[in-house]
Amino acid sequence: MSTAWSAKTRQETVSGAGEKEFDLIIIGGGITGAGIARECALRKLSFCLLDKNDFAFGTSSRSSKLFHGGLRYLASGEFGLVRESTVERNWLRCHFPNLVRPLAFVYPAFQNGGSKAIKVRLAVFLYDLISNFFSKYKNYRRGRIFKASFIKEIEPAITLEDPDLGEMTIAGFYYDTNCDDARVTLEIIKESINSGNNESTALNYCHVNYFLTDDRGKAVGVKATDLINGIEFTVKGRCVVSAAGIWTDQVLSAGSYCDERIFPTKGVHIIVPSERLGNRNAFGLTSLDDGRFFFILNRDRVSVIGTTDTAYPTSSSNLDEPWCTREDCDYLLNTVNRLFPHARLGDRDIIGTYAGIRPLIRPEKAENESAVSRRHEIFQTNDGIVAIAGGKSTTHRLMAEDLLFYLVKIGYLKRFSEEEYNRRGFSRQPFKIGITLKEFDRILDENNYWNLAHPDQIKHFYTQYGRGAFDIFERINDNPACGVPLLDDYPYCEAEINHILEFECAPRLIDIMCRRTEAQWAVWHHKQETLAKKVAKIMTAYYSWDEQEKNKQLQEYLDYVGKTISFLKM
Predict the structure, then answer these.
(1) Per-residue pLDDT reduced to its tens digit, 333-387
(2) Is the confidence at residue 113, as pLDDT, over 90?
(3) Among candidate residues 377, 376, 329, 390, the one with its CA nearest the CA of residue 354
(4) Which domains does the chain have, with CATH numbers?
(5) Alpha carbon of 398 to those of 83, 141, 424: distances in Å?
(6) Alpha-carbon gap, residue 546 to 502, rounded angstroms
(7) Using only C-alpha atoms, what is the Rg of the chain?
(8) Which of 55, 65, 497, 543 is an S-S bond match for 29, by CB 3.0 to 4.6 Å?
(9) Do the beta carbons of residue 269 and residue 353 sit within 8 Å?
(10) Which residues, in sequence order, are bridge partners of residue 233?
């Protein structure tokens, strides 16, 4: 079980960080920074991770909620990237089974447009071959090619013929994995801290003001401000690394680096009821507007449709607040409504939306946004800051491993004393919080937990919290009333919120609604205020907020929700 990690002890944690010298200072609390923290913890290095927002605030909570190999990257010949991604995906599925779960995809081919039959056949064949060849961690199941008539049996809502595309000829059937991206990030950070013997720490809402350098001009620390308490403090370290994602250029500009390395593109997702759309599996589709590949992702009662891929001008936009627009929504629904003609999805069917920005590496020449590589790069600034940027959430472990070996290569870190720490792939280890469904059910039986919650809640606790769910069950066992759902037809309850508050460093209401849970997009927008008020009441009791602070937190979150659906015709 994790040790307590509450925002109640924030000031003490900040003070403690200022009194130590760490092996690494990591700027950025997304999945890349989290992966670096885990590499440090496993190799017995201390770290201090800092983020100016909440953990997973940016791209790491606004992705397609997938760990995937990137089937569409085969078309651009990025076989190495697909290989890396599928190996990492399969490792995560094997060693984090509650949170990284198999998801079946249908990839249809039509006569006159979209993806042709030969392309689909080749893609599914290569996807399996590249994934499984000499791999310790294999695909969940082998990909298949089905006739259109059979696809109609398993997916009756999809059309077999479109006026422009012609008849569906075949469909590929393959597997990737779904997840809660923000929770994966958070669990990695939690495990990294717990493995560090109190030598390491992670702080959200801490803005790095500038870098401290030694007499050689090399960065050996940062001056930061705790945005919650307003305290300025100093953190010292042997080296400073940036894993700031879309904010990489901003972070490095606090030192001597002035180049623009990030090419931001916006990705939007809209959420609809699965019963309205009629899909039983996930789909990989080609847009009828511009030929871009996007997904319909089945998440039980809801389906996530996305993503778009459009250039995001940093000169005139706020990187913290990308939003779904009318144009984004219409772009996605146009293709979906054509291929699922009985759905006729419109504004009334949209449960919620979210938008994120991909931190791609700026290409040397202008390219289509979707054609920009998802590979990562590591580079060093004149003041000795080592930055990692680009990449995919699926390959976060590999990215972090590459960074640590780079630091050893340039002499910022010594070669590790334990020989196994110097081995590539050393960190492909099971996650301590991870648990198989079979073992989870066995522990429920042994402790007679089955009657403490309804089946949907039990499934929710398992997938989201793994072994951490047993703390939630214990809370409900001690006080059955705290297991009652806060909102009808949704699993969230007081015991879950109190677990988050004690173990997951969530100082603000928006942290819980957007990142500790998936409530912001999984709950109907017209029910958000009801749920948020109940969560705010629990937080008020825990943090001893006064009425003014509670109302401030509530309004901040509701304003955010309002912006995610501002384009809807209510």
Answers:
(1) 999 999 999 999 999 999 999 999 999 888 866 556 666 777 899 999 999 999 9
(2) no
(3) 329
(4) 14-60+182-261+373-422 (3.50.50.60), 73-177+264-361 (3.30.9.10), 437-564 (1.10.8.870)
(5) 12, 24, 9
(6) 20
(7) 23
(8) 55
(9) yes
(10) 224
